[in-house]
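Supplementary Methods. Inverse-folding protocol.

Structures were first reduced to a discrete structure-token string of length 229. This string, shown here, constituted the complete conditioning input.
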């Protein structure tokens, strides 16, 4: 390293202490462990018919802790999970979300988009936002709470959201990736600071006793994987 490079990096923070990795051991071969995990996750479905059966706060805490284990750019962890069970807040969120959804279905969505949604039977009515016992609203942070930089925030928050969804499924619960557009109303209803921006809304709970989901198939392996061995 040249003298100029040395001076440039002279005031950087010191290297973090490093500790030995404690790898997770599933007690199975990688083939069997991955097969079992897939068999669990292949049962995951997006659900719009929720029960109002209570879910404990402890359960939601553990789900959020699991989401918070996600990797992130420079370990800035640019996510905030706002967990709502308050009935009045859920009502206000539903009213605002449905107002945006009515605009979407009536004016914002292209004909092609509506054609693609039509087989799923979705519309602007979102009763699950009040019925589900919990709403987890995922916010992405455009800077840290103390004004610091964040990096790859959308990628980081996207990964954390995926891990949240997996944790919800592992807990025996269901969810839906709800993305009313635009979502700025969530910042207002939840009184969030300017450096947090809504990313996704996840209703969380048990499925209704009469819950049904669209009968559809996921792409097979040869359509989602390219091998270069």
């Amino acid at each position: 390293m040249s003298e100029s490079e040395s001076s440039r990096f002279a005031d950087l923070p010191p290297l973090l202490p490093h500790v030995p990795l404690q790898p997770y051991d599933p007690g199975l071969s990688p083939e069997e462990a991955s097969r079992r995990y897939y068999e669990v996750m292949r049962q995951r479905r997006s659900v719009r018919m929720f029960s109002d059966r209570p879910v404990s706060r402890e359960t939601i805490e553990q789900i959020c802790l699991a989401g918070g284990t996600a990797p992130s750019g420079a370990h800035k962890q640019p996510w905030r999970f706002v967990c709502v069970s308050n009935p009045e807040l859920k009502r206000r969120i539903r009213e605002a979300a449905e107002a945006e959804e009515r605009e979407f279905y009536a004016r914002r969505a292209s004909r092609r988009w509506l054609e693609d949604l039509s087989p799923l039977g979705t519309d602007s009515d979102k009763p699950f936002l009040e019925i589900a016992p919990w709403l987890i609203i995922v916010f992405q942070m455009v800077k840290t709470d103390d004004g610091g930089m964040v990096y790859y925030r959308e990628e980081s928050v996207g990964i954390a959201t995926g891990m949240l969804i997996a944790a919800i499924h592992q807990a025996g619960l269901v969810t839906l990736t709800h993305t009313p557009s635009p979502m700025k109303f969530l910042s207002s209803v939840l009184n969030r600071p300017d450096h947090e921006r809504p990313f996704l809304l996840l209703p969380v709970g048990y499925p209704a006793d009469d819950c049904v989901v669209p009968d559809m198939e996921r792409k097979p392996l040869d359509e989602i994987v390219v091998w270069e061995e």
